Amino acid sequence: MRTPRILVPAIAAAALVTVLAGCSTAEGGKSITTPSASASKPAVLPDADVRVPEAKETAKCIDGAAIVDQSGTEVTLEGACAKVTVSGNDSIVHLGDVDELIVESAISRITVGTAKTVTLSGNANDVLFTGDKPVKITDEGTGNVVQPKGK
User: Please, are residues 59 and 66 in contact by the beta-carbon 8 Å criterion?
Assistant: First the structure.
């Protein structure tokens, strides 16, 4: 007769644990927020809040093209360049005027003088322009922002 007394509370406890497991948070107590379809545009951090990498490099425009593939680095390309591809992740990139800017990176902040076209295929990038707004912006990624610097 003792078995049913122990079995019923054990089954009830197992059921309670199963139900409450769906209410727990993920990743060590941090809740995960999933954006809804009506979520607002991602915000650009002010310059003072942006982490600046210690590593610094200079890129070069060769025959009208430059590739910035350094990750975790602050990269500067002096002067104008017809085509610039940014593929390094988690970087800060300073550019002059470009005709075509291609952003394949993730979590990068790119400041450009003017760009005629901007194509983004990476995610969570900020493209800030100091000159005229790009004529054409194609964003195939998620969480990207293209806007005037200082806005």
Answer: yes
Contact present, 138 and 121 (Cβ < 8 Å): no
Residue 64 identity: G
Residue 28 is predicted with a pLDDT of 46
Alpha-carbon torsion angle 46, 52, 57, 59, nearest 10: -20
Higher pLDDT, 74 or 25: 74
Distance of CA 2 to the CA centre of its chain: 60
Instruction: List pLDDT tens digits, range 33-92.
Output: 334 344 455 667 666 666 677 889 999 999 999 999 999 999 999 999 999 999 999 999
Cβ–Cβ under 8 Å, residues 134 and 149: no
> Using CA atoms, how far apart are residues 82 and 96, in angstroms rounded to an integer?
10
71 within 8 A of 88, measured Cβ to Cβ? yes
Q: 124 and 106 in contact (C-beta within 8 Å)?
A: yes
Place of tokens 């390094």: 88
Contacts of 70 (CB under 8 A, 6+ apart): 55, 57, 88, 91
Count Cβ atoms below 10 Å from residue 29 Cβ, excluding itself: 7
pLDDT, position 118: 98
